[in-house]
Amino acid sequence: MTEKNLIHIFDCAECQSLNAGLAEAILKLPEETFNRRTHLFHGRYENLYVKSGKLPVMERILNEGLSKAAKILSRSKDDLKFGFWLNIMNKGDVTTLHRHDDNDELLSAVYYVQSDEGSAIFRLHGQTEIREVEPVAGRFMFFDPALPHEVIEHLIDTPRISIGINFGPAIEEQ
Predict the structure, then answer these.
(1) Rounded to whole angstroms, how far apart are CA atoms 137 and 77?
(2) SS3 annotation, the chain
(3) Where in the chain are the domains?
(4) What is the pTM of this model?
(5) Distance (Å, whole) CA 127 – CA 130
(6) How far apart are CA 3 and CA 89, in angstroms?
């Protein structure tokens, strides 16, 4: 991706119709639903990994993300794999500056399940510019996993809920 085109944004009307029920289900998940938590910063785990099958409605959203990622990367959906996690931000939470290029990631994405007006802003650090993107429920945002990014402090009472996704090759490339 070029510096001029750091972010690809897609609104998903079909996905948005699922958001209210999904947000409610996510906020009611019992602790044992998460098989892993990572990135403990400022008293909060930034990444919450859900056991397979616990949120079946999320499959439609993930499939839509996979389709969009394949289009951006000019690949077949069958040529890609992905991993995902939940991020729930309550008032006062931040997501620290980080990158997603640890392994074989080709593309990263975030899908916004719940984000009211005033929700914390996503900040992407390019080589020559910093882009700030306001989260919008029902929106996918795709970006280069090597670019550092963060989420500034969440200042409203309604939780900001998103799904983070990393896409990589389905078969290890030589």
Answers:
(1) 24
(2) CCHHHCEEEEECHHHHCCHHHHHHHHHCCCHHHEEEEEEEECCEEEEEEECCCCCCCHHHHHHHHHHHHHHHHCCCHHHEEEEEEEEEECCCCCEEEECCCCCCCCEEEEEEEECCCCCCCEEEECCCCEEEECCCCCEEEEECCCCCEEECCCCCCCCEEEEEEEEEECCCCC
(3) 3-169
(4) 0.90
(5) 8
(6) 28
Using alpha carbons, list the distances in angstroms from residue 170 to 82, 104, 155. Answer: 8, 10, 39
pLDDT tens figures, 64-106: 999 999 999 999 999 999 999 999 999 999 988 988 888 889 9
Which bin fits 118, alpha (ψ -120 to 50), beta or left (φ > 0)? left
Statement: 3-169 belongs to CATH 3.60.15.10: no
Q: Is 80 left (phi over 0), alpha (psi -120 to 50) or beta?
A: beta
| CA dihedral angle for residue 154, residue 159, residue 162, residue 163, rounded to 10 degrees | 130
Q: How far apart are CA 107 and CA 65, in angstroms?
A: 11
